[in-house]
Amino acid sequence: MESQFLDIVVSGPDMSGTGTQVNDLINFFQSLGKRVRDIRGTEIAALFHAEIFKRYNSQHISLQQFLSDNQVSEEDKKEIVFQANQLMIGGNTNEDLKIASCIRNNVSTYINPDSADVWIMEEPTKRGAGQVNRTLEQQRTQYFSSFDPIAAAYSHQAYRIDEFLRFRRMLRKKNKIIIRSRSEESACYQIYDKNMIPDGIFMKDYLNLPGHKITFGNPPTHLFIVCAKEGWTREQYLTIKKERSNGRYIDDYESNVDYQILLNDRYRTSWLEDLYKQGCSMYGSIVPSITRFNIYDSKAEIKQKMCELIKNFL
User: Fold this and answer.
1) Do residues 191 and 259 lie in contact, with contact meaning Cβ atoms separated by under 8 Å?
2) Between the CA of residue 256 and those of 104, 142, 166, 261, what are the distances in Å?
3) How distant, in Å, are the alpha carbons of 63, 126, 150, 156 from that of 131?
4) Whole-angstrom distance, CA of residue 160 vs CA of residue 285
5) Stretch 171-198: mean pLDDT, rounded?
6) Distance CA 151, CA 155 (A)
7) Whether the bond into 288 is cis, omega within 30 of 0
8) Fewest 10 Å CB contacts: which of 91, 152, 156, 250?
9) Contact assessment for residue 306 and residue 224, using Cβ atoms and an 8 Å cutoff
């Protein structure tokens, strides 16, 4: 019997540790002998996995791992970065701009979806419209502007079209395992709330955006949500932020404490289930299975619980 695809999203409010949890799942799948490719990162990070770079990428799960490998020569590192940049520079026609994709066509650089069993993705992406979200929408105060949840919703839906058509649709068709950090459930961040997001987008408008027609029509199979339980306080969020930020730059979303409390409430309650029930009903898809984990459990405990669940899916 042919296996079915798994499309698993790991998510939660900021400081919930999605990056750590996704990396733990990478280690888990590698321990099972699965081939893993990590296409998180910029366009160059995706191009690294292309067939034309097979000589470089066959022994590494990501560009980052390749560049940090002391066994790889500096000449090879420079060569792949140079060649990938050449593909992205483009010329006078669209055909010259060879972005990465799992589709053989005239305008992209081919990544073979069968070159791995497990594919790692992220949202927002660090390429395309996702880059706009990371460098502008989440950092508007750096540009003498303020939070605009409607602009953010439009930017997010744009890269969801991009990532689905270039990668995720073919990976699902090929029955691959997809592990994603966040997804369209980040509606928690943008949809109207009379107190915290009074200028947010309304649910109906959010679900009718072109990118969300695609994503709610092809939702994840499972959501792993790491969040706090009812009654999470401002002081508790500030404590966990201090513990987990490790001196890194804090963006506008992370610094807004009351906003984070609202996000946690949406992630931990039926608000999230209602979002998917509405979206999946509109586009004829299946509501994903949602499992929640306690944000205060240790990294090891969360990893064990997630891995035990995934074993049941394989």
Assistant:
1) no
2) 44, 15, 34, 9
3) 18, 5, 17, 10
4) 17
5) 97
6) 6
7) no
8) 91
9) yes
Three-class secondary structure of residue 117 per DSSP: coil
Query: Using CA of residue 267, residue 224, residue 13, residue 238, what is the dihedral sign?
Result: positive
Instruction: Check: CB of residue 120 under 8 Å from CB of residue 39.
Output: yes
> Residue 277 above 50 pLDDT?
yes
- What residues contact residue 175 under an 8 Å CB cut-off, 6+ apart? 2, 3, 4, 5
Cβ atoms within 10 A of the Cβ of 137, count?
26
Beta strands in 102-207 (DSSP E): 108-110, 118-122, 177-181
pTM, rounded to two decimals: 0.95
* C-alpha angle 277-259-157 in degrees, rounded to nearest 5: 50
Find, among 191, 194, 196, 199, the residue nearest to 276 by Cα. 191
Residues 6+ apart with CB under 8 A from 216: 184, 207, 276, 279, 280, 282, 283, 285
pLDDT exceeds cutoff 70 at 232: yes
Average pLDDT over residues 126-131: 93
What span, in angstroms and rounded, lies between the C-alpha atoms of 71 and 53?
Answer: 17
Q: How far apart are CA 29 and CA 117, in angstroms?
A: 9
Asked if residue 130 lies in contact with residue 123, where contact means CB atoms within 8 angstroms, the answer is: yes
Distance CA(135)–CA(292), nearest Å, equals 29
Contacts 24+ apart (CB under 8 A), 67-71: none
